[in-house]
Amino acid sequence: MIFIWAFITTGLFCAVAQIILDNTKLTPGHVTSLFTVLGAILGFLGIYDKLIKMAGGGASMVIANFGYLLYTGAYMGYKEQGILGIFTGLLTKGGAAIVGAVVIAAILTLFFEPKD
Predict the structure, then answer these.
(1) DSSP code per residue over 25-67
(2) Distance of alpha carbon 81 from alpha carbon 78, whole angstroms
(3) First CA to last CA distance, the chain
(4) Contact, 81 vs 90, CB < 8 A?
(5) Cβ atoms of 81 and 33 closer than 8 Å
(6) From 74's CA, which of 30, 89, 92, 96 has a CA 20 to 30 Å away?
(7) Model pTM score
(8) Cα–Cα distance list, 74 to 11, 14, 15, 25, 99 (Å)
(9) 37 — pLDDT class (breaks 50, 70, 90)
């Protein structure tokens, strides 16, 4: 059943993003930023935790999860170290996602050429 919820959850995120792209003048970068902030807000409200439990990988693979990771890292840093911990903890959970994206992008540039 978790596979069905994962498919539905990811599909809804993608459908909303496509509707925003089709009906507004926002660029993909704007929508990416919007979904990152949305993930942080849903994490703050406690909704994203429930979404991950319900949909598993369907909720943890979309860009909103990056915002959630940033929020949880900052919150954990705040709980452990106070105000300064917000900044030091910000990338503790999201750091692996950033490094992974950079490494994969570097590898893909070896095989593909950009279009003009």
Answers:
(1) S--HHHHHHHHHHHHHHHHHHTHHHHHHHHHTHHHHSSTHHHH
(2) 5
(3) 44
(4) no
(5) no
(6) 30
(7) 0.80
(8) 28, 27, 29, 32, 18
(9) very high
